[in-house]
Design goal:
Length: 164
């Protein structure tokens, strides 16, 4: 005697219920899982134009410090870093923008008006107004922003910042 496959009403209802439950679980669960793990797969854009304010705020020939912060998100971790640049405005309203980080061991340099140089407090290095090394251990000049990384729009100064 041969047996034909036969599904009873109870099995059919169980099958349909299981299928509908699986579909509903996927519809609800997958976006929730994506929401929970998405921070781990995203990195925040680490470059941007930073506004440094009106050019008029910067006196001609006097390096003027501008500090700013950038937050960085890596997965669920968020860090806030502070940066500083010296803006040197020239008589023709062009500008030189220098990092305030010493190229020796990354201490922050200060402008010393009496000597007309930047002084690094860590190992007494000196840098000229153009960032060139005048003395001390630094292996290279202060980092500077190239002309295509500096812009003036409507009298406001911007630098294009790239996080290392
Ligand atoms: S860190 Fe600036 S001279 Fe050493």
């Amino acid at each position: 005697m041969s047996q034909t496959p036969h599904m009873g009403r109870r099995e059919f209802v169980q099958l349909v219920t299981g299928f509908v439950g699986a579909v509903m679980g996927a519809v609800i669960g997958l976006p929730a899982i994506g929401y929970l793990i998405s921070p781990a797969t995203k990195r925040r854009q680490s470059e941007a134009w930073i506004p440094l304010g009106p050019l008029e705020n910067y006196p001609v020939g006097v390096p003027t410090l501008f500090n700013f912060t950038r937050s960085k998100v890596n997965g669920w971790e968020k860090t806030v870093n502070s940066y500083g640049v010296f803006v040197v405005r020239h008589p023709d309203d062009s500008v030189t923008v220098l990092s305030n980080v010493c190229t020796h061991l990354a201490c922050r340099v200060n402008w010393v008006p009496e000597n007309q140089w930047f002084l690094c407090p860590c190992h007494d290095a000196q840098f000229g107004l153009d960032g060139q090394v005048l003395g001390g251990p630094p292996p290279r000049p202060l980092d500077s922003y190239t002309q295509d990384a500096v812009k003036i729009e409507d009298g406001n100064l911007f630098i294009f910042f790239k996080e290392a």
